[in-house]
Design a protein that fits this description.
The chain is an all-alpha fold and 418 residues long. Helix content is 81%, strand content 0%. The chain has 17 helices and no strands. The N and C termini lie far apart (55 Å).
């Protein structure tokens, strides 16, 4: 009885997935297959897989071959009647949904549902995807291709084993962190490119924080010199970018060391809330100003990726050495120095050490917070050197309050959490 129920459950899932894709194709006026054909195709795949359990896998192959032959015949008829469509989207979807129906029997139901639902969504997003590709420039395409090179070509060939002193230098793990950072930055960069000046101050700061808050600070500081009345807007964007550094930090921790996230999320979120509140106040005060956002550099260039990989390896090794030789006091010096120009390296190295059990979670979030305070000081210096005095006058009080909040969190949070 249980086996019979399981068979009907698989049939029902196949029918539902086929109906979902068929509805989409029917709404798109597909002549080849629609709301009736796709459910039949998907259920056919399931029936063939069930028969294969008794008669062998050739049944599925024969079913797929027969379906492909029917698809070819249908297209030949369309050509003969002068109604042929040059695209192959529906044909590929038909074959794929047959395979999904067949996979339901021996495979995981969740995977089949995800693939079937993904097919429906992908078909539905035709216009949006075509519009997205049409708007991509050559520089954007090069950025995406470089990311493919970094993630799918370089990463798989690196050895996944530790080398060197303290057993912390793993080429695969180091480059995996490069892929993570470039991926986050590239996502923000593409969004920034598409939104451009329409993003406004608030969203411009958010995207700037996801790409690089230090680079954002430098860009807006320089732009404030060229457009003196834009200093207030620049201050709002810089503060918002500084706030979203902490979102980026939490994202990196969640990917690298999920167990560490529960310890880090509280103090890091407090810092985000304080700086985001200051940025929001500045934005509300200056929101009537219009200001064209400066361009960001492509984050997927190979040279910066290699430099980050070397920086991350250096920080990882230095943190491990400081921990071994000087205890926690040495770690804070390393965090302060490494956090001056980059938060990613110290965040990822700390998360990896916590994940490996070589550092306590409490010490981990404190190191990251010390690095963030050091990074605030460095960005204030950038604003002072590259920007106007008016920008510095607006930035310093907000950075001062943020720095004070960070010191209080470092002192009070362990007491309150005890």
């Amino acid at each position: 009885m249980n086996d019979l129920f399981l068979i009907f459950e698989k049939m029902g899932i196949a029918l539902g997935l086929g109906l979902l894709v068929g509805l989409q194709r029917e709404s798109a006026d597909s002549r080849l297959a629609g709301v009736r054909t796709f459910p039949l195709v998907t259920v056919l795949g399931t029936v063939c897989a069930l028969l294969a359990e008794t008669f062998g896998g050739w049944v599925v192959g024969l079913g797929l071959a027969g379906l492909a032959a029917l698809t070819i015949m249908a297209n030949l008829i369309e050509v003969h009647e002068g109604r042929a469509d040059a695209g192959m989207t529906t044909e590929v979807a038909v074959l794929l949904m047959f395979a999904v129906g067949a996979y339901i029997v021996p495979g995981r139901t969740e995977v089949a549902i995800a693939v079937g639902g993904g097919v429906a969504v992908l078909l539905h997003l035709k216009r949006g995807l075509h519009g997205f590709v049409a708007r991509l420039g050559q520089e954007d395409l090069r950025a995406i291709m470089r990311f493919v090179l970094i993630s799918l070509v370089v990463l798989p060939i690196l050895p996944n084993r530790t080398y060197g002193p303290y057993s912390v230098l793993n080429p695969y793990q180091i480059w995996l962190m490069v892929v993570l950072i470039v991926g986050i930055s590239l996502g923000g960069y593409i969004a920034y490119r598409f939104l451009g000046a329409k993003a406004g101050m608030l969203l411009g700061g958010i995207l700037g924080g996801l790409i690089s808050s230090t680079a954002t600070t430098a860009s807006y500081a320089r732009a404030s010199v060229n457009t003196l009345e834009a200093s207030s807007s620049a201050a709002s964007v810089i503060m918002m970018a500084s706030a979203f550094v902490f979102v980026r930090v939490l994202l990196e921790i969640a990917v690298v060391a999920p167990a560490f996230l529960s310890s880090a999320v509280g103090p890091v979120s407090v810092m985000f809330g304080v700086i985001a509140g200051l940025a929001l106040s500045s934005w509300l005060w200056n929101r009537k100003e219009t200001y064209e956002m400066p361009a960001h550099e492509n984050p997927s260039e190979l040279k910066p990726a290699l430099m980050f990989g070397l920086l991350f390896a250096g920080v990882l090794l230095t943190v491990a050495a400081a921990k071994e030789l000087f205890g926690n006091q040495g770690l804070y010096v390393v965090a302060a120095l490494s956090g001056l120009t980059d938060m990613d390296a110290i965040t990822l190295s700390t998360a990896q050490l916590v994940n490996a059990g070589r550092m306590a979670p409490g010490s981990g979030w404190q190191l990251i917070l010390v690095a963030s305070l050091s990074n605030l000081i460095f960005k204030a210096g950038i604003a002072g050197v590259l920007g106007t005095r008016r920008l510095l006058r607006q930035i310093l009080p907000m950075y001062g309050l943020a720095f004070l909040a960070g010191v209080l969190v470092l002192i009070l949070w362990p007491i309150l959490a005890a």
